[in-house]
Amino acid sequence: MGLIRTVILALAMAGPAAAGEARFDWFDYRGQAPPPAPAGQFRNPVLTGFYPDPSSLRVGDDYYLVSSTFSYFPGLPVFRSRDLVSWQQIGNAIDRPGQLDFSGLGLSRGVFAPDITWRDGTFYILNTCVDCGGNYLISAKDPAGPWSDPVWIREVDGIDPSFFFDDDGRAYLLNNGPPEGTPLYEGHRAIWMQEFDLNALKPVGPRKVLVNGGVDLSKKPIWIEGPHIYRKDGWYYLTCAEGGTSEQHSQVVLRSREVWGPYQPYAGNPILTQRHLPRDRPDPVTSAGHADLLETPAGDWWATFLATRPYAGDFYNTGRETFLLPVSWKNGWPVILEGDAAIPAVLPRPKLPAGAGPAPDAYRDEFDARALGPAWMTIRSPKSRWHRLGGGALSLQARNVPLGSLGQPSYFGRRQQHMQAEAATRVTFAPARDGDRAGLAALQSEDFFYLLSLARDGGRTVVKLERRAGRGEAPHGVTLAAAPVPAGRPVELKVVARGDRYDFLYAIEPGRWTTLQAGADGTMLSTKTAGGFVGVTFGLYAYSEDTP
Predict the structure, then answer these.
(1) Is 53 an active-site residue?
(2) Which residue ranges of the chain lie beneath pLDDT 70?
């Protein structure tokens, strides 16, 4: 029910698009996936597309997971599963504009690396709103929501806060922060811990550094982060990501007999990485790390973590995705993957009752519900209502907020989840003046996107392809191709992703596609080129210079 209180709920309203609106009749997505896993097995990743920094836990027979969304809204999707393989989104923890304000932020700022935990009937999410408030805590009785407004934890700097609840009833807050004194090198960070009062909702007592720099400070390890503590067989195990979130990413583990340490590193670290493997191996999975461990009722351990699937080198457009691997215990240490092993694409399922099955590789939204589904996202926190659902369509008000800005444009998108994928829609829009446009975007950030739209150009209606490839370009970039179309008629638009190439098509008669441009550069939409931490979204957009 939390989603009902958000601005993305719209009452059913019949009728055609009003003046200044773009009407989208449907949105269709199709991804080319490998064959299903054989019986008794599952295929990685378990959440395809831009679902990074997974944090997971078990409560009874249910498993829950949250991931980062940065400056997209609603934020922090919440998933539930019974088998650790099939995850169903049940809501978003940040689903009201008043919870957090993403105004003026780049798409890769905002909410980083959430941590979800549970104690005594209450779910908690610790998180950092980067450049928008710092560390905070939200809570809920039902993980589907509503989640509380943030309780700010101003006393703790840095990022990646997480909770550990000890058997004696105490709560501890861990986080990544600057080291004591002057950093010795770029990327020198530390893992801190402090006791936390769950009644007063604030940290208490002294803070202490548990890890300085990483498992071996003499090697100048970078970006120790994402800390989690687990208790097993009288030991406290501290696992962290190390090496940064790109190709040098890894997961390491240390342990202690006391929660406050000292923590000694595992001689076999890292317990998960792919940085040692050749780039030219078939179907590579890279950048693995940021793991969270959990235990099933039968005593089996599993790890959720992020990794990427490049189509070449370090180029990937689907963002950092959520993977699942078993954890083995060797001589008292948890190990996810050893030696030169590559992350397997297919492996035996957890010994748990089968879930609902993997998410479909194709879906179609006819916009016939009272609200958009929880997977739809807009950019930054809405300040006003600029959309409506009704009459079997999603209508967007064309406003003077361009995609290539730090404002809040009329845009709703969903993730590109496959290297080979296509997204299509049918739009009705009457551009009144030159510069008005509405259509379908393939967007990596406000600085890197393609836009295929119905537009007015030189007094005529055209279908136009624009590209923005850097902050120095105009808000909609440059025009790559255009073709005249009849005014006042609906037009179908399609984008086809082929790894590092994207095709853009349109149809005046349903399904009779004309290619406007084929083979556009897809590496422009990669994290390697555009930077940041997000993946591509395919989205619906409307713009007019005359509507504030």
Answers:
(1) yes
(2) 1-19, 548
